[in-house]
Specification:
Two copies of one chain form a homodimer. By secondary structure, chain A is α/β, with parallel strands linked by helices. Chain A has two domains: 23-224, Glutaconate Coenzyme A-transferase, CATH 3.40.1080.10; 232-539, Glutaconate Coenzyme A-transferase (3-Layer(aba) Sandwich). Chain A contains 20 helices and 23 strands. In chain A, the strands form five sheets. In chain A, strands 1, 2, 4, 5, 6, 7, 8, 9 and 10 form a nine-stranded mixed beta sheet that branches. Chain A has an eight-stranded mixed beta sheet with strand order 14-13-12-15-18-21-22-23, with helices on both faces. A two-stranded antiparallel ribbon of chain A has the order 3-11. The longest helix of chain A is centred in the middle third of the chain and has 16 residues, at 237-252. Residues 1-8 of chain A have low confidence and may be disordered. Chains A, B: Keywords: Acyltransferase, Transferase. Chains A, B: It holds the Pfam family Mal_decarbox_Al.
């Protein structure tokens, strides 16, 4: 025996099983309430008070779609004398009760990714010191931290069905549930699952029952938002013009095989232009074959026309259940036939395995930095920064990636296509191109250590506006990048300050292209080019398999 | 009905279930061989010939540790007249039979991550055109592609135990098995699993049986390498000196809370210095609390001394099974008590959720680019580039990350610590610092579109040699980066060309530090500082729980 060891040994902990013992002791307290793993619905508040301790790290599932709404409503009702100082970890702050937890002093600290509809109230609560922000994350880094320094004590998640052994069926909206549960189940955390329905046998097992401690049938189905449904009726001719430019001047030019689309009307327009304008260019089977995205209804015509080989999804989409189940050659589906998604793996794929990310934003500064954080709204990040950057850890090549090479030398490498697609004015009023991002001021007000920038200019390869395309990856220096951006900034102050006499050189250097250079007539950008002009037509394309939520029905 | 739809409709495929139908038809051919999901051991070659078709994409599990060795040996024996032109996807080429598959013309194309011990033969086969390389990847991007453009037809994986319903127990070496299976099971691919043992009930369910099509008991346990075991006897005083510099000049200086260590002797030295030298600096409980790494035996003394709060692992380590099971407060363990790893999630955490990556390399060029690819050896990447770069998608902050800020302005952000730790000469002979990386030439020979660089200079924040530390993140431009590097390059040609009169300025600018600046005496770097000096002492520290493989036993 070394003397070193004898000196050091007493420093170590006296027990190595504190987490396991703690879990065991808490579970014993609810044992009398349970039948196997099943908790009666009306006992949930009582059970949460027995299972959660002050200061716990608690993950509450709130994707941008699926919400553990029964459990969040129950958490608001616990006695703050018994349960307080919680450190909440939530990928999305989407419901009023998510913030009520803090106002009622049940929780004090928050690590999150996205706050969407609650961003205004969140900003106010930060100002009032009623909420302490740890950090704002992308989804993937938040998931990573669940295994490093944000390991949870308790997780509250949602699934469609469970059997009495706790085996879970998530259906199409698998989303982040398996990742959250894995972080707790394998570290002696407590896994509490609300399910829409208890059944004798689940249609398929998405998560094994042994990973789950407690299931509870919710009083109503979990909240699920139709976040990725865009009504074609709202697609304007500006979107169509920009879509045509993107298809010809980016997708076809760089031979983009695999990509992610966000939820904007710009990309919805592209989806609906592929079977018409794209077809007329002879691009079917040549571009846009592999996708990382949710089952967008606006992609139905392209799928039905044979454009799409595969789609892997972060989550599902309300109303697309029957359609995706009927297209297993395209979507990931389980042995039971229904879709399966996986937010963590799709974010990995969206970061590392696709040629292109294309998204929209609210503000862009002269160097191409952008953010959706505007005055008073701390909306967070979601998944965009993860997919909207050039991953330096990527080592495999594709034609599109190699196309972004700029410069000489033996170590030059390719780059991911990161495209921003914006109108020069938001709602025809506020300029998208600004001298300085609001995010800087908002970050300072919220005492964030760095400004909440969504995508940094150095990562952006293209910007598309209704004026034209800036090929930023071709810029040899920051001055060229600024010039190319200003050239497509229209009549915003940035655009008006631009010296148009430089455009000829910028065009010949390949730094910008207007519709004329792309051989596109502005007058050709008509709504008649859309493969579907309404939700009703999407339903027709799907042969009745797509079942849109009632708010999208007008017939 | 829109006319557009009527025009487009005929373009779509006539069936949307070709993959499901194909799987069904192949599975029918082996039905008579199976008892439930169980295939008799001796039928494996026959079954593979019936289940795999020419041109299939086949994933063969070969982590850097666990190998589906029974299945790879069987695949070599199939008739190339029946099964050929396979496109193999393998994270690691580790066994001779992995390349025999190509020599026997069963497979033709390969996408992979790491080739380790087979790198020499691989290079020769590429030269002989007996293998076509798709791309070389990091692990995580290869996993991502399994859901995008490398979706598999058949996967061949390994687990410890299965029951007759196909439920799998992987034990500590869960590794990449769940990720590979998910890509196939939810896309009508065929999942074939070799198991060491068929049992009536598995200790825990790591992968649900419904995701598995066929299990076969292997003739012997799967191959498992003790890749992360470093014998403290081989740690030299140079390693110890460098370790002391790293602890004081990097870990403590930047307050590193979370990190990854690779398999080198340099980092093994650091692990063994924490409970001695680190303790003397009062650093316990202050740094190195959260880890993304395999259960390194050399970390046992630090764990036992109370340094480590959590470890999430890519895989397991031979001999560490009982130890990890007895330390559930530190390691991720399942409801059954044994460890669980997850290579994909740990790579996500290692990329996004830790303060620091520290690794070693074989060559560094004057700008800090590095590679382990040297003449004639196309060794690939593994996970290092994924963890050894600054992820631009990261938005959360930590003290260490903010410490890397360099420059002013409202949009300045932090950076991940990426540390290279190298002796100036490899084995005392070949200089580590070179004018130009061998990787450039090797890449050209193998017709790779870009040079196989492991870590790019712009991502490296620190380089540690036996001479001192270069704080590259402080460099304002590439010239300063080159000077700082040259200053620690010793008597290599690069180091000898350096003008030592500049060092005073480099020191005062914080660009370099020698042991003197860190208040470290070279003569203090003695082996007596190691908390364990042999594998035997590691076993003692573990109270006999660590059970090293026989090749590491000398007592």
């Amino acid at each position: 025996m070394s003397t070193t060891k004898q000196q050091q040994q007493p420093l170590g902990p006296s027990s190595w099983t504190t987490r396991r013992d703690e879990k065991h002791s808490r579970m014993q307290k609810v044992e009398s309430l349970l039948k196997g793993k099943v908790l009666p619905t009306e006992q949930i508040v009582n059970a949460l008070e027995l299972l959660i301790r002050p200061g716990d790290r608690v993950v509450l599932e709130g994707n941008n779609q699926k919400q553990a709404s029964f459990l969040s409503a129950a958490l608001v009702q616990v006695d703050p004398e018994k349960v307080n100082q919680l450190h909440m970890i939530m990928s999305s702050i989407s419901r009023p009760d998510h913030l009520d937890i803090f106002e009622k002093k049940i929780a004090s600290k928050l690590d999150f990714s996205y706050s969407g509809s609650q961003s205004l109230r969140m900003s106010q609560m930060i100002e009032d010191n009623s909420i302490e922000i740890g950090s704002i994350h992308t989804y993937l880094e938040l998931y990573g931290r669940l295994f490093i320094d944000l390991i949870p004590n308790v997780v509250l998640v949602a699934a469609d069905k469970a059997d009495r052994q706790g085996n879970l069926y998530t259906g199409a909206n698998t989303e982040e549930t398996p990742t959250i549960i894995e972080a707790a189940a394998f570290r002696n955390g407590i896994v509490i699952v609300q399910v829409n329905e208890l059944v004798d046998e689940v249609p398929r097992i998405d998560i094994p029952g042994a990973w789950v401690d407690l299931v509870v049938e919710s009083d109503r189905p979990y909240q699920l938002e139709a976040l990725f449904t865009r009504d074609p009726r709202q697609i304007k001719e500006t979107h169509i013009l920009m879509g045509m430019m993107a298809i010809k001047g980016i997708y076809a030019k760089h031979n983009v095989q695999s990509l992610n689309h966000g939820i904007g009307f710009n990309t919805a327009a592209i989806e609906l232009l592929l079977p018409t304008y794209g077809e007329s260019l002879g691009l079917r089977g040549k571009i846009c074959k592999h996708w990382a995205l949710n089952p967008h209804p606006t992609l139905i015509p392209a799928i039905e026309s044979g454009w799409i080989e595969s789609i892997h999804s972060f989550g599902g989409e309300v109303g697309m259940e029957k359609y995706t189940a009927a297209r297993p050659d395209v979507f990931f589906t389980g042995p039971d036939g229904s879709m399966r998604s996986n937010r963590a793996l799709c974010q990995v794929a969206g970061q590392y395995a696709v040629d292109m990310f294309i998204g929209s934003t609210l503000q862009i500064d002269p160097e191409g930095n952008s953010s959706t954080v505007t005055s008073g709204r701390l909306s967070g990040f979601g998944g965009a920064p993860n997919m909207g950057h050039d991953p330096h850890g990527r080592r495999h090549d594709t034609e599109a990636w190699l196309n972004m090479m700029n410069g000489d030398g033996p170590l030059v490498r390719g780059k991911k296509l990161v495209v921003q697609m914006v109108e020069t004015f938001q709602n025809g009023e506020r300029p998208t191109f600004v001298d300085s991002l609001d995010a800087i001021h908002v970050g300072q007000e919220a005492h964030l250590p760095i400004a909440p920038v969504m995508i940094y200019g150095e990562d952006v390869t293209h910007v598309v506006t209704e004026e034209g395309i800036a090929y930023l990856y071709k810029a040899q220096n920051i001055e060229e990048r600024k010039l190319a951006l200003a050239a497509v900034a229209g009549v915003t102050p940035l655009g008006q300050a631009h010296d148009a006499s430089l455009n000829e050189r910028l065009i010949s250097d390949g730094l910008i292209a207007f519709p004329e250079q792309l051989d596109i007539r502005r007058t050709d950008a008509r709504r008649s080019l859309l493969a579907a002009k309404s939700v009703e037509e999407l339903v027709e394309w799907s042969s009745g398999l797509y079942n849109p939520p009632s708010k999208f029905r007008s017939w």
